[in-house]
Specification:
single chain, elongated, alpha+beta, 2 helices, 9 strands, about 20% helix, three-stranded antiparallel beta sheet
Amino acid sequence: MSAVPELRIPAQGEPDGQGEAPQRWRVRRIAAAAAVLWVLTGVYAVTPEQQAVVTRFGAVVQRRAYPGIHFALPWPIDRVWRVRVNQLQRLAIGGDLTDGVLGRTQPLDSQFLTGDQNIIHMRVVAHALTIP
């Protein structure tokens, strides 16, 4: 028969043979790694089709951050809001624009009741271009 070594767990307050110095270094390394990761949350990238607005505690600090890699104070101090610019946005009211092209009519989508109780047929397409 082979002898199985006995595993002994030290009691509370009893030295474990490793000492407390390595445990302190381990805690310090973990704390340092957490601090470095927290600081790295301040690095952000803005793509070419975007611009960014940086706010600090809700107040605007930097109105425009152009494409590239930037640094702001770490979260939750600074917050970065990325906005797509040079993008055409379209909103159709009273049916979709393709309905007219394809010859489909949807009369209920384009009927609106006015304040003086009249029914009107209306279709509006609003375009918005975001320019920096």
